[in-house]
């Protein structure tokens, strides 16, 4: 038993450190930027140290547990703990947030508030991934919403208020279902209410009740993930947000929905999950095709990348619905892989916009001549997104394929049909990504732009791009980096609940 409160420090450090930003001396934005980056680096190093020295990989049980009574009046506990499922997303959060603070350098207006909100998001995200109490999970989930709303409405594009309002309506609407589900599950069952995830995982519910809870949680996570038709807030939000905010949204926020789906819907409600999993697979397959086709029709560069994110989320849904070790491991690999790839593409889209001030693809062209470094990085990361072998996206999608093909739950014909649809989706991905590269970088359009002398990527931007590219290649060549974290936990989830 480890008595030092590692997780509490990891969860609270960013938001407490962020609160001190407002007391820093008024000496321009440089102090604030460096202070924020130092907090992020300290947090990342602390997290890495804790997991490296205090976490046993081959143990599927919850580790580093902390359990403090918080509010005596209604038995509310501060319960934290991690296992193989949460360790990957927590490290991803640290990595992407640190790079997003580096990417936020061009933000000069109200930069104290901007950097504080980024650190508050950081705490909320790590809190969500490490909560072992349902009410605490809900509070951390909500802590995420306000910073995103403010980052959108204050530092977004022309339609920022519209997209911020749409974001808060969708996500707060989903949170209502989450809260009802949390309270319902906590109050049902044992004599006294409990919100402890360990206790709830060993409880059984009547099937009808389990289905009701499952639908409630599914709606909440479907908004965040997003699952069609609850996805329409995402392209608007990405289209208007500053690209450092987009990195956090694509890299981490969407992954919270997938994490909740596995952590709560699969672990707590296994019978309902086995009833709903065929529908999840059908929706996932439709989502891959629909979002890929919609992406092809987008003129706005950031919206095109946003729809490609929605398409890639379809693989996660199918992996979760396959109810196999391979499928679920593939979904977790896709969560991590897309976290890197999505963040990288939005970062490059933002740096391109900083230079040419154009957002519509049909107005662009000829950028390869003026911006060779951006062209190279954009091309490599687009290849990662279209699942080029040797990159993380290829292995993640391939593992999901194997998961659905080897699943014992489904008949042969439906499996062949779903695999066929997924394959069409994988063929559509190169079409919209390569046409995006063609419209941006080839041809002669930019010769007509006034002041057509541009600075290519500077050292800071190259550092951010390469820092994200290295793990994408590392996972593509050696996926055990990620799979070794989650494989025991996945086996425990599948064997405990589905093959009794």
Automatic annotation (TrEMBL):
Catalytic activity: a plastoquinone + NADH + (n+1) H(+)(in) = a plastoquinol + NAD(+) + n H(+)(out); a plastoquinone + NADPH + (n+1) H(+)(in) = a plastoquinol + NADP(+) + n H(+)(out)
Protein name (Swiss-Prot/TrEMBL): NAD(P)H-quinone oxidoreductase chain 4, chloroplastic
Residue stretches making up the NADH:quinone oxidoreductase/Mrp antiporter transmembrane domain: 131-415
MF terms (GO), sorted A to Z: NADH dehydrogenase (ubiquinone) activity; NADH dehydrogenase activity; oxidoreductase activity, acting on NAD(P)H, quinone or similar compound as acceptor; ubiquinone binding
Primary location: plastid
UniProt family annotation: Belongs to the complex I subunit 4 family.
Subcellular location: Plastid, Chloroplast thylakoid membrane
Organism superkingdom: Eukaryota
Native source species: Plinia cauliflora
NCBIfam families: NDH_I_M
Swiss-Prot/TrEMBL keywords: Chloroplast, Membrane, NAD, NADP, Plastid, Plastoquinone, Quinone, Thylakoid, Translocase, Transmembrane, Transmembrane helix
EC number annotated for this UniProt entry: 7.1.1.-
Transmembrane portions of the chain: 6-25, 32-56, 76-101, 113-129, 135-155, 167-191, 211-234, 246-264, 276-293, 305-324, 330-353, 374-396, 416-437, 462-479
Topology class, membrane: Multi-pass membrane protein
Keyword NAD listed: yes
Top enzyme class: translocase
GO biological process: ATP synthesis coupled electron transport; electron transport coupled proton transport
UniProt xrefs under HAMAP family: NDH1_NuoM
GO annotations of cellular component type: chloroplast thylakoid membrane
Pfam families documented for this protein: Proton_antipo_M
Taxonomic path: Eukaryota, Viridiplantae, Streptophyta, Embryophyta, Tracheophyta
């Amino acid at each position: 038993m480890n008595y030092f409160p590692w997780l509490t420090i990891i969860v609270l450090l960013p938001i407490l450190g962020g609160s001190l930003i407002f007391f820093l001396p008024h000496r321009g934005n440089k102090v604030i930027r460096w202070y924020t980056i130092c907090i992020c680096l300290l947090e990342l190093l602390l997290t890495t140290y804790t997991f490296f020295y205090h976490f046993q990989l081959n143990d599927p049980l919850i580790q580093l547990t902390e359990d403090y009574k918080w509010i005596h009046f209604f038995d509310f506990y501060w319960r934290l703990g991690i296992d193989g499922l949460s360790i990957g997303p927590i490290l991803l959060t640290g990595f992407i947030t640190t790079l997003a603070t580096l990417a936020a350098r061009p933000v000069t207006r109200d930069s104290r508030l901007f950097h504080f909100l980024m650190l508050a998001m950081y705490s909320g995200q790590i809190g969500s991934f490490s909560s072992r109490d349902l009410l605490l999970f809900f509070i951390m989930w909500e802590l995420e919403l306000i910073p995103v709303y403010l980052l959108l409405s204050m530092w977004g594009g022309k339609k920022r208020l519209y997209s911020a309002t749409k974001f808060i309506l969708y996500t707060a609407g989903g949170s209502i279902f989450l809260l009802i589900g949390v309270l319902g599950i906590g109050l049902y069952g044992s004599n006294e209410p409990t919100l402890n995830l360990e206790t709830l995982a060993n409880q059984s519910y009547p099937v009808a009740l389990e289905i009701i809870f499952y639908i409630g949680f599914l709606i909440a996570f479907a908004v965040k993930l997003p699952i069609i038709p609850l996805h329409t807030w995402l392209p608007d939000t990405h289209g208007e947000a500053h690209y450092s905010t987009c990195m956090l949204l694509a890299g981490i926020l969407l992954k919270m929905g997938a994490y909740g789906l596995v952590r709560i819907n699969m672990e707590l409600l296994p019978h309902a999950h086995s009833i709903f999993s065929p529908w999840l697979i059908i929706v996932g397959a439709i989502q891959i095709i629909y979002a890929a086709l919609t992406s092809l029709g987008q003129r706005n560069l950031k919206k095109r990348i946003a729809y490609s994110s929605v398409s890639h989320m379809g693989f996660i849904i199918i992996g979760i619905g396959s109810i196999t070790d391979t499928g679920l491991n593939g979904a977790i690999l896709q969560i991590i892989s897309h976290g890197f790839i999505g963040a990288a593409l939005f970062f490059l889209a933002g740096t391109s916009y900083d230079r040419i001030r154009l957002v519509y693809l049909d107005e662009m062209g000829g950028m390869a001549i003026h911006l060779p470094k951006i062209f190279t990085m954009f091309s490599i990361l687009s290849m990662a997104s279209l699942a080029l072998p040797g990159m993380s996206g290829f292995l993640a999608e391939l593992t999901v394929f194997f998961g659905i093909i080897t699943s014992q739950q489904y008949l042969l014909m439906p499996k062949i049909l779903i695999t066929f649809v997924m394959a069409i989706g994988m063929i559509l991905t190169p079409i919209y990504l390569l046409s995006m590269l063609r419209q941006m970088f080839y041809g002669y359009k930019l010769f007509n732009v006034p002041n057509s002398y541009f600075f290519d990527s500077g050292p800071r931007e190259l550092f951010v791009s390469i820092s994200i590219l290295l793990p994408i290649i590392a996972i593509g060549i050696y996926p055990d980096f990620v799979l070794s974290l989650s494989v025991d936990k996945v086996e425990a989830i599948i064997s405990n609940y589905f093959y009794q």
